[in-house]
Write a structure and sequence with these properties.
Mean pLDDT: 87
Low-confidence stretches: 142-148
Structural class: mainly alpha
Largest sheet: 2 strands, antiparallel
Strand order of the largest sheet: 1-2
Helix content: 55-70%
Order of helices and strands: HHHHHHEEHHH
Strand content: under 5%
Shape: globular
Distance between the termini: 20 Å
Length: about 270
Amino acid sequence: MIAVEIRKLVRRPRTWVSVALLCLLPTVVAVFLALSRIAPRPGEGPAFLSAVLANGQLYPAAALGIVLPIFLPVSVAVVAGDSIAGEASTGTLRYLLARAVGRTRLLVAKLAAVIVYTLMAVVAVAVTGYVVGVRLFGTSSLAYATPTVSGTPLTTAELLQRTVLMVLYIGWSMLGVAAVSLFLSTFTDSSLGAALGGLAVLVGSTVLVTLDAAGGVRDWLPTRYWLAWVYLFRDPILWHDLQRGVAVQGVYIVVLLGAAWANFATRDITS
């Protein structure tokens, strides 16, 4: 069942269109930077964008920093929101379950497809960022972190290791987004409604993170530690926020997926 759902995901043109669009935006930004040679000041704009002119090997971090606030969560929310609600809206969910496909098995297969899409999107942006960055900005023997994070030089091998950790951390954070939309997808026949509901939660979280009045709950908001991956490029790495980010997303993933299973397992399927 998992293989079937992954094949369906891979064969859908919209899957590749969404990944291509995610990769296109950082590419366009890189072209403008290469032509103008004008980068944002340190601390302004997406993370690491001010440092890529000196070393294109940092552009995977900048590329993910560009798509992370809006475009990547939107893509993940749309795919996750369509997982169950999409089947219900087309009338195929009832027939899938009528073929003795267990509800838990179906939900796990849908989750696996969402995980594959999430990792595929994050890796695609990172790889595109590396290729574009190296081609347009070149490389150096040492990769320097941005001055706002750390001025300690990183070797190419160290940079690669931390880039892999960055991809895994961002992928884990996006699974938190997927869990919200997948949970909502088990309540509705509208995939758009499930996706918009997930995005509404994230927008609300983003707003609350900036409010002093929400200080009591700030550390438990889903978007609170999204940008903690920048500390991977500091020497020494500041692990506190990274560990908190992993833990907070883990809570959301476990609780929401458990709630999704509980609702889907007992829901009356009429479509």
